[in-house]
Design a protein that fits this description.
Layout: H1 4-18, E1 23-29, H2 30-34, E2 43-49, H3 55-65, E3 68-74, E4 79-85, E5 88-96, H4 97-109, H5 115-126, E6 128-131, H6 133-143, H7 148-158, H8 164-173, H9 176-197, H10 211-216, H11 225-231, H12 237-258, H13 265-271, E7 313-319, E8 322-323, E9 326-332, E10 342-344, H14 351-363, E11 366-367, E12 373-381, E13 390-397, E14 400-401, E15 410-416, H15 426-437
Parallel strand pairs: 2-5, 7-13
Antiparallel strand pairs: 1-2, 1-6, 3-4, 4-5, 7-10, 8-9, 9-15, 11-14, 12-13
Amino acid sequence: MHGQWRRNLAQTIARAYSADPNAEVVMIAGSVGRGTDDQFSDIEVDVYYARPPTPEERAASVERSGATLAALDQDADEWEEQMLFGHFRASSSTFLTATMERYLHEVVERAEPAPLAQVRLSSLLNAQPVKGHDQIEAWRARARSYPDALAQAMLHEYLPIPGLADIEAAAARGDLLYLNRILTDAARQILGLLLAVNRTYVPTPDHIKRADEIIAGLRHQPRHLAVRLANLFQVEPTAAASAVRELTDEVLTLVDDYVPDFDTSPFRAQAGTTRHRWDPPPDLVGQLDDTHEEQRPAIRPPYELVRPVQPDVIDKIAWIHLAAGRILSTRSHDKDTYYLPGGKREPGETDVQTLVREIDEELGVTLNAATARHFGTFEAQAHGHRAGVRVRMTCYTADYAGTPAPSNEIAEVAWLSYSDRDRVAPVDQLIFDHLHHSACLA
């Protein structure tokens, strides 16, 4: 667990705000609240007041937490206290209770895309309650009703994808700054469309930060989305241009499948346009006066393009099987770390083919391939490998026949809970965090 001290400190800050009678709701938010914090994470606490807090009230909450007040900020909807514990920074995002009511009305009842309001609803659904549990649950019950009209509005917000018409030209020219801007904008729009398809609120204002975590929570997505988006910035420019068009087409197909009342045809037509290559047509050849044309040197970058070396990545497929709030895990002979059942693909295998074969070999049960559903893709440092070697775990759920039992290299089958998190590999820990905060793992 990355820094239990962060969670303890977050609880201290939250309790300090909870002591203010004016604070009706207090939650631990951000990556600490979601359980996905790392060594770079700060702490965020969300507070909702009955009436506007005075500067003295705000400063008193910071003082009760044991922090030094760094700044008091404010905008139309939000008050923020920046505080320091030594050199470590934490902050509060504070609002009126009435402001959350307005956000719910705007987003859920009126289906307005309102990104900042959606960020608050996303935080509400994923934060850890500290005070005002009944109010939080009432708000969450309303927020869970993601309206179809909001999905439609979000699709209009993120279509068309800008810059696609220029992407081949930028790639051919080696215009990398412009190309990377197009790629980044396209990735942002693609994620926005997938949030709509999955009826998921916008988690951050640009939904680029922690994109892999966002992608892991999307049930409906193109295969290997996180890997493909990351590779856009590592492959050759022309390959990146082709990859963006492929992803766009696949995302529009998902829109057709899950938001069937939305007409994607005009956007497919726009996505297929490219900048025309203007060469003189045949009937003008020889008619153009080029006798005085300056002999200009070709514009070429005076360097060779150096691509970063991609780190080693181990590609694995895993089965997610839950029962009574516990998850099925395995331990190999002569090992003390537990892993989710699954393994590496063989040449030519699809994800599901790999999954079916590995589970049969390891547990002696037969998965029903037709019921396999992508759960998420997670990536972390590979356990037992040198620093920099990553493992990418693509996870599926599936029905099965038989009784799981250790076979071949598997020494033990165990049902683990969230309290066993430290006994599993780093990538499995990410999955445990996700399941725990989705109330699937006890």
